[in-house]
């Protein structure tokens, strides 16, 4: 079980997340002590019509391009970026977290009543079963759940 916290702005104003990060970092004991989870809603309003895929790469230089080539067979990458992380004492960074905003190609599953959702589900299963060096850790439309390691 990871540390968990929620914050809502009653006026609907955007937040930068520093308050949540600060609050999580104050919790010394979070069960296993190895993770912190964030549930995010409305964080990426420019990409609200797309699926977010959060990926861990073992070696970003070696595995990113083959992963993206596979992804492009299922739809279109609208935007991608490395997910910013904070260096933590006594915690070695093993993976590079990457964020994709993705539009599944509905034409690949014309028989489906929810083709985009089915494509993303199949894509996640295929990548996590077959693609060495890349692991999709979260996927979906809003709200997005993000999982990190170490103190926030």
Structure description:
The chain has 152 residues and is of the alpha+beta class. It has a domain at 43-144: Alpha-Beta Plaits. Helices cover 24% and strands 28% of the residues. The protein has 3 helices and 6 strands; from the N terminus they run αββαββαββ. The protein has helices at residues 18-25, 60-72, 115-130, and strands at 35-40, 51-57, 75-82, 96-104, 134-140, 144-149. The strands form 2 sheets. Strands 3-4-2-5 form a 4-stranded antiparallel β-sheet. A two-stranded antiparallel ribbon has the order 1-6.
The major beta sheet can be summarized as: 4 strands, antiparallel
Order of helices and strands: HEEHEEHEE
Structure annotation, total helices: 3
Parts with pLDDT < 50 across at least 5 consecutive residues: none
- Rg over CA atoms, rounded to whole Å, is 17 Å
Provide tags for this entry.
152 residues; alpha+beta; four-stranded antiparallel sheet; two-stranded antiparallel sheet; 3 helices; globular
Chart the SSEs and their pairings.
Layout: H1 18-25, E1 35-40, E2 51-57, H2 60-72, E3 75-82, E4 96-104, H3 115-130, E5 134-140, E6 144-149
Antiparallel strand pairs: 1-6, 2-4, 2-5, 3-4
Briefly say what this structure is:
The chain has 152 residues and is an alpha+beta fold. It contains three helices and six strands, in the order αββαββαββ.
């Amino acid at each position: 079980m990871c540390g968990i916290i929620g914050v809502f702005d009653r006026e609907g104003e955007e937040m930068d997340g520093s308050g949540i990060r600060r609050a999580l970092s104050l919790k010394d004991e979070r069960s296993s002590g190895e993770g912190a989870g964030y549930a995010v809603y409305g964080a990426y309003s420019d990409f609200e019509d797309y699926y977010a895929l959060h990926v861990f790469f073992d070696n970003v230089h070696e595995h990113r391009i083959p992963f993206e080539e596979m992804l492009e067979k299922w739809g279109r990458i609208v935007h991608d970026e490395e997910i910013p992380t904070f260096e933590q004492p006594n915690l070695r960074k093993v993976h590079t977290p990457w964020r994709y905003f993705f539009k599944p190609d509905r034409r690949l599953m014309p028989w489906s009543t929810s083709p985009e959702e089915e494509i993303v589900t199949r894509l996640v299963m295929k990548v996590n079963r077959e693609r060495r060096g890349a692991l999709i850790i979260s996927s979906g439309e809003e709200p997005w759940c993000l999982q990190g390691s170490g103190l926030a």
